[in-house]
């Protein structure tokens, strides 16, 4: 793809744009794609109208941070060929083009290189506006495999999550130039596709010679060299490609050629095994939407599951469990994204119920023998050797922590008695309510009563927000930190909040959260109370109004309301706030409100 045509603008000048929101529909050479925004702000100017085309990488619209900045853009915005916007704005762009394939150096080695055949390249995509390089976690397709448009070909590690990357081209993977576990800059080719199976050797030979020539050129110019990827011979496919899509003979072909469908419809069709050419679209201009796919699924007979042939896609945890339980992954049906096998799938195949995180499997107790006292743990922690490179998320956290030094903050600490909250939690815990959901609900109600605590600073402007979203910090197993966000927490009932939070925790651990689910500048809760921490200060990330550090609830001896000395439980909370828009009195009033809700108005949490 060298240029794209804008089919429809989903936002108009003056509209608010959030991270992850679709702003336009772009027609590529294969399909119509919804394009999401990597920035939050207001759409100030549309530079390429509907029906018009622009080169890949050209500026098609300008997003500014506040409404007041819209007038500053006006007609002084750069022409579509320009790429520089005002300092306070960000530009909506088509996907960044890959650099042209460098010509082989004029050496004896490169002079014998074969001519460039017809091929397509798979590039390292930009999964966020700040991403400059990506690490390939896993290849879902191997050399020699057939690839269709929309097929998931690889998993790439971004700042916050592992993202499935789809192919915009069809063909056969002839050569993989960046193996799993390796990184490369955004826009660099990571694999090459041959148009036909017969052309695989030609494309592979050309790609291999090009890589070797590039390495030679780097060595002669004294630049840092990288080891060339060793090309593995493409294995002949003994069996024809296996398809999991249903193609009932009783249903007529509705769509021929290009199929126009929403991204959600495509994902649902892939998950359910529905061939979109048999689905009639009921959306705008005949576009296929998710409900169309679900109706098509109901109209088709259930197909028996057939174990996959060829490459098996499974998570690292699933592979470990399969090795431990001696389970053949080829016989396991995957329930993860794009049919990926998860650890839970392997446990089910082994006849074992998946164990919830933090819970040990139940065992039969023997009433005749008393339980022996547990022996002291003798396990030791393995210490990594020397310097260990950070992963993408750890790098992002480090950058955010450094950037936090540019925000002036202040801190306030409050002591809250937790008797009423503890009693409510004891009643609701059997119904699936979590303590995290209770805290999020209490904070959300307090935020709704003090709008300044939910506002954002934007260059001499205070941006008030109608939605009250609450994020909670979660530490990940392999290092790093993420803040899943509960949307509209003040208006969502407690039981739904708890279900949503449990789901988000699991997807955060699997690195499957979408950008909208962990970004957006929501007020943050950081709870270390479960570790016995009495009190701590949390660092305020950039673009966030405040963060509440929650300590442990512990018994304290003190004077009771009846005048007698007794024991009660209390916890300390410390709020760090952006002092550019929030003042000491604002923070004190907010903490006073939160304390009153937890101590005296717990009924508000279940209403």
From TrEMBL:
<keyword id="KW-0809">Transit peptide</keyword>
<dbReference type="InterPro" id="IPR000089">
    <property type="entry name" value="Biotin_lipoyl"/>
</dbReference>
<keyword id="KW-0012">Acyltransferase</keyword>
<feature type="region of interest" description="Disordered">
    <location>
        <begin position="211"/>
        <end position="250"/>
    </location>
</feature>
<dbReference type="Pfam" id="PF02817">
    <property type="entry name" value="E3_binding"/>
</dbReference>
<keyword id="KW-0450">Lipoyl</keyword>
<keyword id="KW-0808">Transferase</keyword>
<feature type="domain" description="Peripheral subunit-binding (PSBD)">
    <location>
        <begin position="313"/>
        <end position="350"/>
    </location>
</feature>
<comment type="similarity">
    <text>Belongs to the 2-oxoacid dehydrogenase family.</text>
</comment>
<dbReference type="InterPro" id="IPR004167">
    <property type="entry name" value="PSBD"/>
</dbReference>
<feature type="domain" description="Peripheral subunit-binding (PSBD)">
    <location>
        <begin position="260"/>
        <end position="297"/>
    </location>
</feature>
<dbReference type="GO" id="GO:0045254">
    <property type="term" value="C:pyruvate dehydrogenase complex"/>
</dbReference>
<feature type="region of interest" description="Disordered">
    <location>
        <begin position="355"/>
        <end position="380"/>
    </location>
</feature>
<dbReference type="InterPro" id="IPR036625">
    <property type="entry name" value="E3-bd_dom_sf"/>
</dbReference>
<feature type="domain" description="Lipoyl-binding">
    <location>
        <begin position="1"/>
        <end position="64"/>
    </location>
</feature>
<dbReference type="InterPro" id="IPR001078">
    <property type="entry name" value="2-oxoacid_DH_actylTfrase"/>
</dbReference>
<feature type="domain" description="Lipoyl-binding">
    <location>
        <begin position="119"/>
        <end position="194"/>
    </location>
</feature>
<dbReference type="InterPro" id="IPR011053">
    <property type="entry name" value="Single_hybrid_motif"/>
</dbReference>
<protein>
    <recommendedName>
        <fullName>Dihydrolipoamide acetyltransferase component of pyruvate dehydrogenase complex</fullName>
        <ecNumber>2.3.1.-</ecNumber>
    </recommendedName>
</protein>
<feature type="compositionally biased region" description="Low complexity">
    <location>
        <begin position="104"/>
        <end position="113"/>
    </location>
</feature>
<feature type="region of interest" description="Disordered">
    <location>
        <begin position="71"/>
        <end position="115"/>
    </location>
</feature>
<feature type="compositionally biased region" description="Low complexity">
    <location>
        <begin position="359"/>
        <end position="380"/>
    </location>
</feature>
<dbReference type="InterPro" id="IPR045257">
    <property type="entry name" value="E2/Pdx1"/>
</dbReference>
<feature type="compositionally biased region" description="Low complexity">
    <location>
        <begin position="75"/>
        <end position="95"/>
    </location>
</feature>
<dbReference type="GO" id="GO:0004742">
    <property type="term" value="F:dihydrolipoyllysine-residue acetyltransferase activity"/>
</dbReference>
<dbReference type="InterPro" id="IPR023213">
    <property type="entry name" value="CAT-like_dom_sf"/>
</dbReference>
<dbReference type="GO" id="GO:0006086">
    <property type="term" value="P:pyruvate decarboxylation to acetyl-CoA"/>
</dbReference>
<dbReference type="InterPro" id="IPR003016">
    <property type="entry name" value="2-oxoA_DH_lipoyl-BS"/>
</dbReference>
<dbReference type="Pfam" id="PF00198">
    <property type="entry name" value="2-oxoacid_dh"/>
</dbReference>
<dbReference type="Pfam" id="PF00364">
    <property type="entry name" value="Biotin_lipoyl"/>
</dbReference>
């Amino acid at each position: 793809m060298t240029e794209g045509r804008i089919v429809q603008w989903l936002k108009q000048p003056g509209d608010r744009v959030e991270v992850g929101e679709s702003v336009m529909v772009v027609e590529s050479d294969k399909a119509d794609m919804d394009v999401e925004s990597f920035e939050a702000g207001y759409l100030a100017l549309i530079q390429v109208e509907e029906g018009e085309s622009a080169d890949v990488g050209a500026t098609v619209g300008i997003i500014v941070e506040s409404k007041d900045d819209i007038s500053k853009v006006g007609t002084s915005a750069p022409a579509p060929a320009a790429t520089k916007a005002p300092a306070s704005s960000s530009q909506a762009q088509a996907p960044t083009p890959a650099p042209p394939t460098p010509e082989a150096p004029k050496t004896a080695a490169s002079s014998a290189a074969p001519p460039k055949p017809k091929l397509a390249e798979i590039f390292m995509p930009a999964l966020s506006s700040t991403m400059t390089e990506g690490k390939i976690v896993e290849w879902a397709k191997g050399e020699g495999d057939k690839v269709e448009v929309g097929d998931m070909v690889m998993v790439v590690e971004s700042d916050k999550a592992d993202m499935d990357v789809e192919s915009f081209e069809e063909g056969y993977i002839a050569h993989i130039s960046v193996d799993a576990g390796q990184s490369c800059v955004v826009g660099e080719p990571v694999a090459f596709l041959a148009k036909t199976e017969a052309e695989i050797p030609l494309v592979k030979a050309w790609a291999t010679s090009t890589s070797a020539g590039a390495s030679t050129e780097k060595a002669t110019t004294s630049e840092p060299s990288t080891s060339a990827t060793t090309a593995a011979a493409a294995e002949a496919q003994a069996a024809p490609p296996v398809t999991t899509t249903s193609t009932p003979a009783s249903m007529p072909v509705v769509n021929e050629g290009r199929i126009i469908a929403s991204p959600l419809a495509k994902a649902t069709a892939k998950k359910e095994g529905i061939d979109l050419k048999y689905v009639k679209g009921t959306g705008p201009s005949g576009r296929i939407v998710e409900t169309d796919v679900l109706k098509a699924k109901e109209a088709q007979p259930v197909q028996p599951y057939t174990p996959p042939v060829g490459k098996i896609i499974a998570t690292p945890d699933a592979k470990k469990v399969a090795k431990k339980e001696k389970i053949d992954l080829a016989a396991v049906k995957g329930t993860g994204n794009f049919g990926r096998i998860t650890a839970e799938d392997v446990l089910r195949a082994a006849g074992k119920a998946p164990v919830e995180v933090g819970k040990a499997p139940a065992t039969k107790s023997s009433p005749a023998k008393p339980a022996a006292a547990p022996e002291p743990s003798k396990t030791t922690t393995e210490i990594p050797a020397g310097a260990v490179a950070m992963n993408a998320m750890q790098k992002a956290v480090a950058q955010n922590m450094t950037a936090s030094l540019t925000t002036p903050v202040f801190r306030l600490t409050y002591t809250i008695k937790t008797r009423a909250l503890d009693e409510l939690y004891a009643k609701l815990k059997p119904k699936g309510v979590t303590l995290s959901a209770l805290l999020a609900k209490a904070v959300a109600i307090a935020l709704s009563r003090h709008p300044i605590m939910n506002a954002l600073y934007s260059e001499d402007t205070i941006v008030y927000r109608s939605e009250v979203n609450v994020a909670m910090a979660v530490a990940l197993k392999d290092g790093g930190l993420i803040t899943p966000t509960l949307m509209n927490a003040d208006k969502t009932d407690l039981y739904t909040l708890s279900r949503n939070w449990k789901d988000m925790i699991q997807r955060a651990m699997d690195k499957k959260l979408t950008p909208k689910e962990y970004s957006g500048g929501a007020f943050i809760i950081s709870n270390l109370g479960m570790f016995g921490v009495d009190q701590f200060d949390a660092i305020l990330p950039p673009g966030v109004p405040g963060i509440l550090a929650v300590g442990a609830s512990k018994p304290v001896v003190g004077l009771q309301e009846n005048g007698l000395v007794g024991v009660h439980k209390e916890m300390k909370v410390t709020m760090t706030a952006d002092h550019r828009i929030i003042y000491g009195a604002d923070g004190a009033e907010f903490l006073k409100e939160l304390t009153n809700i937890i101590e005296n108005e717990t009924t508000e949490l279940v209403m």
